Amino acid sequence: xxxxxxxxxxxxxxxxxxxxxxxxxxxxxxxxxxxxxxxxxxxxxxxxxxxxxxxxxxxxxxxxxxxxxxxxxxxxxxxxxxxxxxxxxxxxxxxxxxxxxxxxxxxxxxxxxxxxxxxxxxxxxxxxxxxxxxxxxxxxxxxxxxxxxxxxxxxxxxxxxxxxxxxxxxxxxxxxxxxxxxxxxxxxxxxxxxxxxxxxxxxxxxxxxxxxxxxxxxxxxxxxxxxxxxxxxxxxxxxxxxxxxxxxxxxxxxxxxxxxxxxxxxxxxxxxxxxxxxxxxxxxxxxxxxxxxxxxxxxxxxxxxxxxxxxxxxxxxxxxxxxxxxxxxxxxxxxxxxxxxxxxxxxxxxxxxxxxxxxxxxxxxxxxxxxxxxxxx
Length: 377
Fold this sequence. Notes:
Layout: H1 2-21, E1 35-37, E2 40-42, E3 44-48, E4 54-58, E5 63-70, E6 76-78, H2 86-91, E7 98-100, E8 106-107, E9 111-114, E10 117-120, E11 129-130, E12 144-149, E13 152-159, E14 170-178, E15 183-192, E16 196-197, E17 201-203, E18 205-206, E19 220-223, E20 225-229, E21 242-243, E22 255-256, H3 267-272, E23 276-281, E24 292-295, E25 301-307, E26 311-315, E27 324-325, E28 331-332, E29 338-343, E30 358-359, E31 365-375
Antiparallel strand pairs: 1-2, 3-4, 4-5, 5-6, 7-17, 8-11, 9-10, 12-13, 13-14, 14-15, 15-31, 16-30, 18-29, 19-22, 19-24, 20-21, 20-23, 23-26, 24-25, 25-31, 26-29, 27-28
């Protein structure tokens, strides 16, 4: 009888062992992302295309955990920072790979006026509200997961009225599509039952060398922008749009990002501790026009950025300080990742002269970000 019971249970035991040992191309173990957080289940989901590219995503924070692409020698490399388990994402606060909401970037003094009423948010960065507050969507679970096929996944989150003090019951959906030509197309959508503000983005930290021991200061960067939004010493936009011409902010001709990054006599680099600024794109919302491009001379891997957003926040990992260990136990030191966050301008709710981030009932917020990978030999 015991033998019969064992034989009956054997397939289940084997399945459990398979899940525990099942690894992705990037070396992640799927079972390390299986957890219940605040009553919602998390997992690790894999996208693959015919070219062999792999993207791993968790619904905790709607995060990209790994991206495997070929380098100039044809070797597959993981080009984003992150952690080996969902437990580390919970334990170590970070924005690595996250789908940020409700409001990417900063809102001045954690408040804004909407229809004559002042909305008081929760300050978490120099008195400002950064990336949706201390419990923004990067620290919450996207409750519904729909893996459409091998190359497409939809993550949906319901955010109740008053979530981090933002108004309106909001339903947000993030769709990741891995294309045949090695691009990740990210579509953000949101609806609300009460007027609110929405500004979503992806917050991946790219290290295109494939080895996050290497700093990104040797990366060659292009940004299709004539202007940028300067910030004060608390990283808050002043309301001005300044020309990049003749300044270290000019990347209209591709240059090595480390060329000027430490020139703190230029006050904007001192205020940002390096580059941590929003550039005003010349693309006019045309998703077919190149917004930015970054290339690693070590690996030859490049990423092109396309978006319908008016701005892109470029952040050079200035506050990574060697205290965090990421995937495979690698210590993330200063400037070992570069973020390319397509979005509306920071603090737009308090700056009516800038493109609006207001979402009204009956309308649909839509934002697209495309990261297209290639190789330059």
